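Priority: medium. Attachment 1 of 2:
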């Protein structure tokens, strides 16, 4: 880096430095020259800030805490939704609690999240206020933020405490996939069964509770309101790790250090490049229930050392090799396994009779051993592209999710056996039609046969993708009886899989919530049919050809839609929204060609965006081909002005495409 920056003017930001030594280690990477370069650092520790700016301490900027008004506004919004909703008898105790928070946003949000779950009574709130004080007095070094976080933790029900402690195994700032987390919890038995509810639904409710209590942070909220992933604030993670070590919940090997723990290692998490001697110095791994590895560890403990392992999570282990899992057959209690990099699975995999999740998405495996069909308890099977499955897959009778089933790589017999998996809820299919098939006609026939069977049982989600341009017209009219339980259908993939028209069975799907589809020709009757889908929340619609009438979206339809993504490959003027259209739409993505808009609607068209009163996010791609710069600027201004009139005041994210092909002002 020093060599790269030499003789350059540079501006570098280094976020969240925790020690003076860290600054000493990295500052040598930045050459000191006379080019007016600048380095900005952030830290929570004043001594570190002074070290970074030495000898010019005048450059240290202390972030000021929130003032009283902003503190109260933040607290009231999280607790009651609005400041005016606070009962009169709680106003005095609210001021006392806010004084304890000292204007620190994290402290305010966490204590407000805690109080939001309790009765709005003065006695209840006074008890919480006293608890903050006692926690602070017991440990002056912790400060008010950590004392409030401790209070929030001890207020959790037991089942949430356990699940929260399990997050200590993940490194700082790691984005934790939501479904990965739930499956791990299920494998370890951390989710408590409830009559009439699936374990996945209960796990979803656990994550929602932890988010609502501000113990974890959501990442990437989708159309259903669920986060794609979650992360833990670093201060919260520090607290969780200390509690986890204190309770001997998990042991973490990080930067050549072993967190203090009792003799029994119940959960082992290896971060980075750790030496083998660290785990050899422990009292053995025979009680370890989960092993997770992140980063570039040189080696992992032999699998033979584990006797009761339930979770083997190696998908973030960059140095994993085939030999590391050679003895996987000895892990007879294993319920969750995830791998990266490896090129084959040992035949011993068939011995894992309790295995529920086998995640191979990040591997280079091209064929599964015949013994995999012996995994009769398997619920989730995730494959990389182009895997050949053995005959007899229909013996995996509990399988509910199968992703990246490659049609071209599997025999007709396996394609037909797919239809016998009556518990299958989620299916991802890789479809190829560029000569990879031995008999493409038969493959289509067998796939349709299996889909028809699955559609009559439990199939809820179907994803079809391709790496080459492919037609899916064989599905358009042949899926009978119609898959009435289908909730998600996606045939876009990387926008190579295409239908010549909208399938006739789609308008009959009364439970459909998510539709991603590419059709060659979109007709006005197709849009009318889609408008009538009662539960549709997300629509990703791409077409190669459509009329102005089709693009006009009027009132009376799309009553539940929250997110709409529209695009036409041939450009076009974009959609027009009439008054009353899409009353609940929150996110809108669309593209248009400036030249076509000007021709069809005139300059300064705002597409009726001002009619979308629920809109919160707006993404627009502008094709500038053959347009003047003034026309592009006029179009952008119209969109921004229209969005400014909406109640939520979304800030449009506008992307220009084809700027080099714009017509100069002095050209015809």
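Attachment 2 of 2:
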């Amino acid at each position: 880096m020093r060599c790269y920056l030499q003789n350059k003017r540079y501006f570098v930001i280094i976020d969240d430095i925790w020690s003076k030594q860290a600054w000493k280690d990295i500052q040598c990477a930045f050459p000191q020259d006379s080019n007016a370069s600048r380095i900005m650092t952030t830290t929570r520790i004043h001594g570190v800030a002074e070290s970074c700016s030495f000898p010019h301490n005048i450059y240290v900027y202390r972030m000021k805490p929130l003032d009283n008004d902003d503190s109260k506004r933040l607290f009231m919004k999280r607790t009651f939704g609005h400041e005016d909703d606070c009962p009169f008898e709680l106003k005095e105790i609210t001021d006392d609690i806010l004084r304890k928070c000292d204007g620190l946003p994290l402290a305010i949000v966490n204590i407000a999240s805690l109080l939001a779950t309790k009765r709005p009574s003065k006695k209840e709130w006074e008890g919480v206020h006293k608890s903050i004080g006692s926690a602070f007095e017991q440990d002056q070094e912790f400060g008010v933020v950590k004392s409030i976080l401790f209070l929030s933790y001890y207020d959790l029900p037991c089942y949430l405490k356990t699940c929260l402690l399990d997050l200590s195994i993940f490194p700082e700032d790691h984005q934790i996939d939501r479904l990965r987390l739930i499956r791990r919890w299920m494998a370890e038995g951390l989710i408590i069964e409830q009559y009439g509810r699936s374990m996945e639904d209960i796990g979803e409710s656990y994550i929602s509770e932890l988010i609502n209590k501000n113990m974890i942070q959501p990442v990437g909220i989708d159309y259903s309101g669920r986060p794609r992933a979650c992360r833990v604030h670093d201060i919260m993670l520090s607290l969780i790790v200390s509690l986890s070590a204190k309770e001997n919940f998990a042991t973490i090997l990080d930067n050549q250090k072993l967190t203090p723990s009792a003799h029994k290692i119940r959960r082992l998490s290896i971060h980075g490049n750790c030496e083998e001697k660290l785990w050899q110095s422990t009292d053995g791994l025979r009680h370890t229930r989960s092993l997770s590895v992140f980063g570039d560890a040189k080696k992992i403990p032999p699998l033979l050392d584990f006797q009761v392992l339930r979770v083997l999570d190696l998908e973030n282990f960059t140095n994993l090799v085939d030999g590391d899992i050679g003895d996987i057959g000895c892990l007879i209690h294993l319920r969750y396994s995830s791998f990266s990099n490896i090129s084959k699975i040992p035949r011993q995999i068939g011995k894992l009779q309790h295995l529920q999740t086998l995640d191979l998405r990040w591997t280079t495996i091209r064929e599964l051993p015949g013994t995999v069909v012996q995994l009769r308890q398997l619920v989730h099977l995730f494959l990389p592209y182009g895997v050949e499955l053995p005959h007899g897959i229909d013996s995996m009778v509990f399988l509910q999710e199968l992703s990246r089933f490659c049609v071209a790589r599997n025999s007709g017999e396996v394609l037909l056996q797919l239809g016998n998996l009556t518990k299958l809820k989620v299916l991802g299919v890789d479809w190829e039609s560029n000569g990879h098939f031995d008999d493409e006609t038969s493959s289509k026939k067998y796939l349709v046969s299996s889909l028809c069977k699955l559609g009559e049982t439990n199939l809820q989600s179907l994803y079809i993708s391709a790496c080459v341009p492919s037609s899916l017209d064989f599905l358009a009219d042949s899926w009978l009886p119609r898959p009435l339980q289908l909730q998600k259908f996606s045939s876009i993939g990387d926008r190579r899989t295409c239908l010549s028209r909208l399938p006739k069975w789609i308008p009959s799907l009364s439970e459909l919530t998510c539709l991603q589809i590419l059709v060659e020709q979109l007709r006005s009757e197709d849009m009318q049919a889609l408008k009538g889908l009662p539960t549709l929340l997300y629509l990703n619609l791409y077409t190669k050809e459509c009329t102005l009438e089709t693009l006009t979206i009027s009132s009376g339809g799309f009553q539940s839609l929250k997110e709409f993504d529209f695009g036409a490959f041939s450009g076009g003027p974009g959609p027009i929204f009439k008054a009353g259209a899409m009353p609940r739409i929150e996110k809108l993505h669309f593209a248009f060609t400036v030249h076509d808009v000007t021709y069809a609607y005139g300059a300064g068209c705002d597409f009726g965006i001002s009619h979308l009163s629920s809109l919160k996010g707006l993404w627009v791609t502008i094709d500038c081909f053959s347009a003047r710069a003034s026309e592009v600027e006029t179009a952008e201004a119209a969109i921004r002005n229209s969005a400014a009139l909406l109640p939520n005041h979304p800030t449009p994210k506008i992307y220009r495409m084809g700027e080099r092909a714009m017509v100069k002002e002095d050209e015809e």
